[in-house]
Design goal:
There is one protein chain. The chain has 323 residues and is mainly α. It has one domain. The protein contains 12 helices and no strands. Helix 2 crosses helix 9, helix 4 packs parallel to helix 12 and helix 5 crosses helix 6. The longest helix has 29 residues.
């Protein structure tokens, strides 16, 4: 049952936003200090998996009984972790792509979820607040990216498109989970997605890179440990604690914190310039997310809304792949 939350809940909630929001910073630090993309991802997932698997083992969480479910979790590991992690890490290798830009663009995941769910899930309705929210949010994304159609082959444009691709991949993962991942304790999808993504990224790392020949710089080691223990490990434990106490709807508000932490940390740690377009785009994206989740303007535009199956959708389907 969701509750109003204690001070501890609020502190954990803010910490969760910090762990996920800081991930973009430490990805940038890792690739800037000699780590190749798949190598960085493999090591962070390895650390995160060990932590999550230990918690699941201690808690004796029941494993999926249906073989088909493992197939769905494998797909989730690919589209909700492997692909977006790969695209984000690739993009942040590009000098002109700052960690703050990556954080703000990736915070638009809820907007893409609305679009993809409306296209592919039965019972999803198009409401006034969602249309307005999507319009506002995507204007924000357009301002952030500011693509020059005459120069789409530039490194900056490729990096920005990769970030958008990662955001879309997360959104597809959300919708896929809503359609296929049911009846599991929240920790189970998280640990198996990380496990399957670790298998895939480990294979890619050993085939295309030399992960065992890394000359570890202190900054690179710090980035991997931070991303593994906090971004891919402790963050999930915080997430499930808040989910249990607050419910899915309030817990999803963590999306509002990602661009705030991303911009602040990028400026403070890496001295990334805070552009006016970044602030404006972030404000519009956050406003768009708030509008699509608003209780006002929920009248369907084209059809009657079906009553929701439950008041609190399982939020573990929407956040399992955060960087």
């Amino acid at each position: 049952m969701a509750t109003r939350g204690t001070r501890l809940d609020w502190l954990i909630f803010i910490a969760l936003g910090f762990f996920w929001g800081s991930s973009y910073l430490f990805i940038k630090i890792g690739v800037d200090h000699g780590l190749q993309p798949w190598t960085l991802i493999m090591f962070r997932l390895l650390i995160g998996f060990v932590l999550l698997a230990s918690v699941v083992g201690i808690a004796r969480e029941p494993l999926p009984r249906e073989p088909r479910m493992y197939g769905h979790l494998f797909v989730m590991g690919v589209i909700n972790i492997t692909i977006p992690f790969g695209l984000i890490t690739f993009a942040e290798q590009i000098p002109s792509i700052g960690s703050s830009l990556a954080a703000v663009i990736n915070s638009a995941v809820p907007l893409f979820v609305i679009v993809i769910a409306a296209l592919f899930l039965k019972g999803e309705t198009v409401t006034i607040n969602r249309v307005v929210g999507l319009a506002v949010g995507f204007v924000g994304v357009a301002i952030l990216v500011g693509l020059d159609v005459t120069n789409l082959g530039s490194a900056s444009a490729v990096g920005e498109l990769a970030l958008i691709g990662a955001t879309i991949s997360y959104a597809i993962g959300n919708v896929y989970a809503k359609a296929h991942v049911h009846g599991l304790r929240p920790m189970i999808p998280a640990v198996f997605q990380v496990f399957f993504a670790l298998l895939v990224t480990g294979t890619l790392a050993f085939v295309t890179e030399r992960p065992l020949a890394v000359a570890w710089q202190p900054e690179a080691l710090l980035s991997v440990v931070w991303l593994g223990l906090l971004g891919s490990g402790l963050a999930y434990l915080c997430y499930f604690r808040i989910l249990q106490h607050w419910g899915a709807t309030r817990t999803s508000m963590v999306a509002y914190l990602l661009p705030v932490w991303g911009i602040a940390l990028g400026a403070l740690v890496l001295s990334e310039p805070i552009e006016r377009t970044t602030i404006l785009g972030a404000i519009l994206v956050i406003t768009g997310i708030a509008l699509v989740n608003s209780r006002y303007g929920t009248r369907p535009l084209f059809a009657r809304a079906r009553p929701p199956a439950s008041a609190e959708p399982p939020a573990h389907r929407t956040e399992a792949g955060r960087p």
